[in-house]
Design goal:
- The protein is elongated, with a radius of gyration of 20 Å.
- The two termini are 19 Å apart.
- It has helices at 2-15, 70-81, 98-103, 118-123, 146-150, 165-173, 185-193, 204-211, 230-233, 246-261, 264-272, and strands spanning 47-51, 54-55, 59-61, 67-68, 88-92, 109-110, 124-126, 135-140, 157-161, 178-182, 199-203, 220-227, 240-242.
- The chain is α/β, with parallel strands linked by helices.
- Helices cover 35% and strands 19% of the residues.
- Helix 1 runs parallel beside helix 8 (204-211).
- Strands 5-1-6-13-7 form a 5-stranded mixed beta sheet.
Length: 278
């Protein structure tokens, strides 16, 4: 996730948080037919969320130096839903220190995009994913990619970042396409703007911020998709807790389910994402 972390930092400085009045489609990765028991957290005296400050719009410091972002507001909404706001704390640390801090008991949960991998599952318990990162095609505004997609993009030159998960995903999902690999997202974006490739295939969240930025100049729009893949893109975002505290993860799942049901998760996405990645 390091490339997305660096790119999103730069793009948020360009475009800022989204307005709630913008039209943004918001996905729902929760099964609303699922019924979870209401948790009892009365024995807890403190719930400490750990996050980072270098991954806007998910977690960052605003112009006044206050901790904010999608993850931060989600943690606050969870505490409100569980009626434990009085005992909730949110603390920022360097991302590289979050896992060890959680393991050593310096916090009760990490809400900062800690990857849901087999290795991390052996160390921590996770909530169900509440958001996933889709891959998307970005094209010059007004370009119709639908016919090419129906034929598997046969012969179409598609820009990707060399060595990325999206390059591997493009070659697997669309083997007839001509993948054109670039050294960096900026190089791939420049190729799309100069019509050297038919489309750009990459992370939908990062591309949504770029196409809303001044650098893009309203050049481009999404076409096709979204495309999801656990194999190439991982399981998405969840909240990590210590492995010996699955009750807390279950409580968070209960709260997130209600937040999704009441469309408050949609409100958070509308607040921080200028163009829907979906």
């Amino acid at each position: 996730m390091s490339c997305l972390r660096n790119l999103s930092v730069a793009l948020l400085l360009l475009v800022g948080p989204a307005s709630a009045q913008q039209s943004v489609e918001t996905p729902n990765f929760r099964d609303q037919a699922q019924r979870l028991a209401e948790p009892d957290l009365s024995a807890r005296t403190r719930i400490r969320f750990l996050t980072a400050v270098d991954y806007p719009p998910f977690n960052f410091l605003d112009q006044r130096g206050r901790l904010t972002g999608f993850h931060v507001d989600l943690a606050r909404a969870i505490c409100e839903e569980l009626n434990v706001t009085a005992i909730c704390q949110i603390e920022a640390r360097p991302f590289a220190e979050l896992a060890s801090a959680l393991e050593s008991g310096e916090g009760d949960a990490v809400v900062a995009g800690l990857a849901i991998t087999a290795e991390n599952r052996a160390r921590f318990a996770f909530t169900q994913p509440f958001l996933r990162f889709p891959a998307r095609f970005l094209v010059a505004r007004g370009t119709d990619l639908s016919q090419s997609l129906r034929t598997g993009l046969a012969g179409a030159e598609i820009g990707v970042v060399a060595g990325s998960a999206h390059e591997a995903m493009l070659r697997s999902f669309f083997p007839q396409a001509r993948a054109v690999a670039f050294d960096s997202p900026a190089d791939a974006q420049a190729a799309l703007r100069s019509n050297r490739v038919r489309a750009l295939f990459g992370d939908g969240v990062a591309l949504s911020f770029w196409q809303a930025s001044e650098a893009a100049g309203e050049c481009c729009e999404f076409a096709g998709g979204p495309y999801l893949s656990d194999r190439f893109l991982g399981e998405g975002l969840g909240i990590a807790v210590r492995g010996d505290d699955p009750q807390l993860a279950a409580a968070f799942d209960y709260a997130i389910g209600r937040i999704v049901r009441d469309k408050r998760l949609s409100e958070l996405l509308l607040r921080y994402f200028p163009i829907s990645a979906f």
